[in-house]
Specification:
about 10% strand, 4 domains, six-stranded mixed sheet, alpha/beta, 18 helices, two-stranded antiparallel ribbon, globular, 10 strands
Length: about 425
């Protein structure tokens, strides 16, 4: 018989959605629901619906709310197949759009200097907007050939202005503008601006993107080259299929080594939500690291229990119980303690990933500790929730960026791009 824990993660998210709709759902009821699913299975959807309704809903009003949330959360197998086919179609169309966009973002054969996020936004722009920008490129193509620097800068500024306007439009999509895809809005809206009711949908988006990245990386590594060493056993077996002729040689695959990952997560004040979403992304990706350790910090450092982090729906409660939530931020003290831990946590094979907005009570101390952490680690990657356009107003960003790789991750889209790069390394 299956253990109730198999269903707990999905039912925890379902319970959270019920609570957001006003139903008083307790952890005990979620455990009872998991036990019911173990005994009933999920073959008969209506039977499961009736059984769970008896656990979660008491009054007629609560039953009405339950039915609406259940129908939206537990979709039928036929609906899931239809949604999967539609998702594959949209992804194929988007891949083709990105390919065309890369061809369009060139001036006299050279790529226009845009960030990965700006290129992604350009691909999402309406066709008439992209056509307008292509017209500008065509109009000034000859002039750019004669004076590359002057006209390349001019065209770059036009593109950036148009892309910024499109990003603002996409942010508006997340605030409920009629006719625009709300998922698109969540992808491009600042993570700190998510409302409680939007968090389950944002989590679903993270899981969907992570599955896509995992699939792409698995396919890429299967296509990877060989190590150059002959695999005698596979060669002989292949030869037996052709009567003993060893004309087709098999080679050993390159061993893919994943690095150790050390995460240092800022949980002071508004940083909790960003750290939660970043951790969800990293844990969903199979190819990020062979093992990882998670440390939480504000004024003090606290190593997170890996078993507790398996249920990310309770992450905020776990942070509050740790005793470090809601305090000030002392990055220097946290890094000093991390570097001094014995046995050593950091090493040449490890990647230190910092999740923080770079604001701290003692910047010189933090900068010195970051240099020491950089010396001890294979690499240091900093995911910053402050949009890159605002970095010029935050002095500490420039100081820390001179020591490590600083990446802006203010939105789910940019966070996904950063995690993808980490997984590909």
């Amino acid at each position: 018989m299956l253990n109730p824990g198999v269903y707990l993660e999905k039912l925890s998210l379902f319970s959270r959605m019920l609570r957001l709709e006003g139903l008083p759902v307790s952890p005990r009821e979620t455990e009872d629901a998991a036990a019911l699913l173990v005994s009933l299975g999920f073959e008969d959807r209506e039977r499961v619906k009736v059984a769970l309704r008896t656990v979660y809903a008491k009054s007629r009003e609560e039953q009405s709310i339950f039915d609406r949330v259940f129908d939206g959360f537990f979709v039928s197998e036929e609906t899931m197949r239809r949604q999967a086919q539609e998702q594959m179609r949209r992804e194929a169309e988007m891949a083709e759009t990105r390919r065309r966009a890369e061809e369009e973002l060139k001036l006299n054969g050279r790529p226009i200097d845009l960030t990965a996020e700006q290129r992604e936004t350009y691909a999402l722009m309406p066709e008439e907007a992209r056509e307008y920008l292509r017209g500008i490129v065509d109009r000034y193509r000859d002039s750019a050939a004669q004076n590359p620097k002057l006209y390349a800068n001019f065209i770059h500024s036009v593109f950036v202005k148009a892309i910024l306007e499109e990003q603002l439009r996409l942010e508006d999509a997340g605030t409920g503008v009629e006719g625009l895809d709300p998922d698109l809005g969540l992808l491009y809206r600042d993570i700190s601006q998510f409302r409680d009711a939007e968090i389950p949908r944002a989590i679903s988006i993270i899981q969907s993107i992570s599955r896509q990245i995992n699939g792409e990386l698995s396919a890429k590594r299967r296509r990877g080259g060989h190590s150059g060493r002959l695999d005698f056993r596979r060669t002989i077996r292949r030869g037996l299929e052709t009567g003993g002729s060893l004309y087709h040689l098999e080679y050993r695959k390159k061993r893919q080594r994943r690095r150790r990952l050390v995460l240092l997560c800022d949980v002071s004040g508004s940083m909790v939500q960003f750290s939660e979403f970043a951790l969800r992304f990293i844990q969903e990706l199979n190819h990020v690291s062979e093992n990882s350790r998670v440390f939480l910090f504000s004024e003090a450092l606290f190593e997170a229990d890996p078993f507790s982090l398996q249920n990310m729906d309770r992450f905020r409660d776990y942070v509050r119980q740790s005793g470090i939530y809601g305090r000030g931020t002392d990055l220097g003290a946290a890094l000093e303690k991390l570097c001094a831990l014995r046995p050593a946590v950091l090493g040449d094979a490890s990647t230190l990933m910092i999740l923080s907005d770079s604001k701290t009570v003692n910047q010189p101390r933090a900068l010195a500790a970051l240099r020491e952490a950089r010396r001890l680690s294979g690499q240091v990657l900093w995911l910053n929730p402050i949009p890159e356009g605002k970095w010029k107003y935050v002095r500490s960003v420039h100081a820390f960026a001179s020591v490590c790789t600083m990446v802006s991750c203010s939105t789910l889209n940019s966070l996904a791009a950063a995690c993808r790069r980490l997984a590909e390394r």
